[in-house]
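Let's practice the habit of predicting before peeking. Look at the sequence and jot down your guess about where helices and strands might fall. Then scroll down.
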Amino acid sequence: MNRIRIFLLVYVSFSITFLSCDADDSAETESKAPYIRFSIATSNYDFEDITTSGEALTTISGTNGLTVAQEGYAKLVLHAPGDLSIGNFSLSAGDFVYDGSSNGDLYKVELYEDSLGFYNDFAESGTISITKIDNEFVEGTFNATVSNGEGSTINISNGRFLAVYIR
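Done guessing? Here is the structure:
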């Protein structure tokens, strides 16, 4: 009878130990998935199909999973200098033009939102805040005011992003 009690005690102890290790191991190895999230009026957008490119320029781009040929396609692109740093940066108005000489006007937000009538329109004002840079990811927030060629204006709010960091 004592052997059975000892066996059960050892079995329960090992079970608890192994279950605890499994939970800890999965938390440590859980990977971050890149995203871009933001709101326009009452609609929330959650893009998980994120690409990052860059050397002289950094471009973080996300879509809603549709293709440009599909109705309802949406894309948001964050443009920044290639030498990213933590801080708050004002967006510069106008289309994206890079002449290779100045990084001061390279912070841009570009929106393509088919259902709202915005087709690669650039923000007139707003901010991009880079809050964290590590060996793998760049993370931050953004907001913007975007107008299209037809006189419509929208506000992008509560913008957040996590993207692969390319040096």
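How did you do? DSSP finds one helix and ten strands in the chain.
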